[in-house]
Amino acid sequence: MAGPSTTSDEILRCARSLLIEGGYNGFSYADIAKVVGIRNASIHHHFPSKSDLVRTLIARYREEAEAGIAHLERQFANSADQLRAYVSYWQTCIADASAPFCVCALLASQIPVLPAEVILEVRTHFRTLSAWLTSVLERGARQGELRFTGTAKAEAEAFMASVHGAMLSARAYGDPKIFGVITHPLLERLATRH
Amino acid sequence: MAGPSTTSDEILRCARSLLIEGGYNGFSYADIAKVVGIRNASIHHHFPSKSDLVRTLIARYREEAEAGIAHLERQFANSADQLRAYVSYWQTCIADASAPFCVCALLASQIPVLPAEVILEVRTHFRTLSAWLTSVLERGARQGELRFTGTAKAEAEAFMASVHGAMLSARAYGDPKIFGVITHPLLERLATRH
DNA sequence: GACGACCTACCTACTAGTAGGTATGAACAG
DNA sequence: CTGTTCATACCTACTAGTAGGTAGGTCGTC
Fold it and tell me: Long-range contacts for A145-151 (Cβ within 8 Å, ≥24 apart)?
């Protein structure tokens, strides 16, 4: 499954973790080169420009996210469990500091200084995630697994915002637990039974 | 009240708006110099280093925030109205694009690459805001103006996270309205009557 | 004349990106 | 089985421009 990771893969993986730490202007080609063990210029061979690199990086991130969502859909029949699993995924990422922030959420905060093609990718992720959450909430309401007032769309946006805000707070306080403090009651409130 | 704005004030004001656009690494001394109309080096006369500048900038931001909160406390007796006014303040900032993001929320996302003294200021803002919201929620519950399950502290953290997440979504979608879509139901849910 | 505010001129380190060369290996013709 | 061709991947060496920061000087005001 996980093929022999190529240099291009390593560059993307390294750039992603650097991006998660400090955003678009928070890392340089030199930083990547140092970690991957190649020369600065060699990165340009794989990705002509920085915006190419970041755009590709997000595209891959979105693929992984969609695969993760598909996995969630297969693994859990109950919509409340799907939401719980989604939140739990991020809880783990934040706790073990492996990837303690959503790439697109971080980039969204810097949209005014981002290249246009990167903005498009970020926006698409938000739309995709929001659409999935909306579908989960709709299904949950229909099947009596979830309850909420207002539209599923509005509740989905609120849910997504809460999760992103919880990531931000965890980072601000330097305390992974705060993510759970914020998201747990949110799940409790949505689930019909617990 | 608003004295004759000094160069130092102008530098801070300019740096703040640049910071709001692209974060700590999203602007340079040259950017500020261009707008304020002085030379690059002259900024160093007022603020020896970039971290000094940003630290001072946040300190002032926090002063203004605390003054704003004090004003809210004086203007509205009802705790639900205070929360509404707080949210409404940000709604306006986002809608007219004057300052469409909380300085500290933006910086929080970049904490791993921020100077230590800046991190401290950011963290303090989160604590201050959370403490105020907690006090509003406690008072609201006591006086029957607000209702929620769980502790006031947890609800305050959730409230703050929702507002920050809503700012992020507004920026991601490029649509100020989404801020209201997320925050309105939140206020409705907390207020005992509407 | 001391001080604050600002300047010119400069520094070193680093930014993304380019030009052109080299090693490696696969494809293919003889 | 060899020699040629070609592309990939990487290299060294370089560019123009920008980053934050410094040294030392000028000028006006108290």
Answer: A145/A78, A145/A79, A145/A80, A145/A191, A145/A192, A146/A79, A146/A80, A146/A83, A146/A190, A146/A191, A146/A192, A147/A190, A147/A192, A148/A189, A148/A190, A149/B185, A149/B188, A149/B189, A150/B185
